[in-house]
Specification:
This protein is an alpha+beta fold and 74 residues long. The chain is built from 2 helices and 4 strands; from the N terminus they run E-H-E-E-H-E. Strands 2-3-1-4 form a 4-stranded antiparallel β-sheet. Helix 1 packs across helix 2. The two termini are 18 Å apart.
Length: 74
């Protein structure tokens, strides 16, 4: 199992954060996901390698569909 923490920018809406968290939870291989808008961080537990640059791109694409100004960074 792999655990990775990301920094989240430009997200202040709790409802949007919940939608993003739910979408990320549906990604194949993701076991758990927690998006905390107050601490500005996203923690993902997965049974796959999360260091792939494509994974970060996928996270950002999902987030931007819900809240276009959101950025997820390593």
């Amino acid at each position: 199992m792999s655990k990775k923490e990301y920094r989240v920018e430009n997200l202040d809406c709790g409802g949007c954060a919940l939608k993003i968290q739910n979408e990320i939870s549906q990604i194949n291989g993701v076991l758990a996901c927690n998006l905390d808008i107050y601490q500005k961080k996203l923690i993902i537990e997965s049974n796959e390698n999360l260091d792939d640059g494509n994974f970060l791109t996928k996270l950002n694409n999902l987030a931007k569909k819900i809240e276009p100004e959101t950025n997820i960074l390593e």
